[in-house]
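Fold this complex.
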Amino acid sequence: MYFSTPSIAATLAALSATVNGALVRVNDFGSNPTNLQMNIWVPSKLAENPAIILVLHPCGGSAESYAQMTKYNSLADQKGFINIFASTKKDNNCWDVASAKALKHDGGGDNQGLVNMIKYTIDKYKADPKKVFATGSSSGCMMTNVLLATYPDIFAAGSRYSGVAAGCLAGSPGASPQTADPTCANGKVNKTPEQWVVQVKAMYPEWTGTYPRMATWHGEADNFVNYPNLAEQLKEWSGLLGVTFSKNVTNTPQSGYTQIVYGDGTKLVGYSAKGVGHTVPAHEADDLKWFGL
Ligand SMILES: *[C@@H]1O[C@H](CO)[C@@H](O)[C@H](O)[C@H]1NC(C)=O
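Structure:
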């Protein structure tokens, strides 16, 4: 015997700690028209009727890498909500926010598969359908915009980092830096709030209810998804949410960031980060505050 029993026990304990700290793959969550991967993080102390946060990685990323880069899972462990970390493996691991089927409610795009992950999770864990949120970075921010525009019936709020308005990439042959028409990322798709509203409402014409609350963050030194895309998102959502600019609050939530407040600040806020490039790092605690968790 080369190994004493206690050392095997110690090895097994270390292994099981690693397994507990991993996302769990879910294979059969319902219709998955674009072949996405679903991973879930369910804390051992789950809240009663827990909230759900769908967390979306940037281009080239994965569920696993974005889970490691961010604090959403440790916060879920503290607060008892569920995270869904999804992955796409197509178009340089970018979410489809360009095709006609993705810019539609139940059109068979990535957005529909993502919503089916949420419906599965609500059923299986008796999650609260009124506490469903989305967040993401870069391509994940773009998809958060598309999800909240095409599924206002599913989401209560979103918070996103360094992306573009829903519909900005409409008609582009792809949604990755390698495949997209660059006009949108260059900040050259400029519309009035009214034009954005017409475009978004056409994605789900049957919807007559309200749209989800939204927070969006962007770096002023972003030369990859250019800074004007912050203003375009704010125009889009100010139109959808029926709120107008009310004030700027400087150095909020930290030095160099300006909080751009619309209405009374409960439906729409932007954060403009001075000197920050691509991307604004996730501000997980601020996201949870925005979601009311
Ligand atoms: C509010 O802040 C943003 C970002 O710094 C800036 O672009 C905008 O001009 C400001 N608006 C006013 C009215 O000060």
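The chain has one domain: 6-288.
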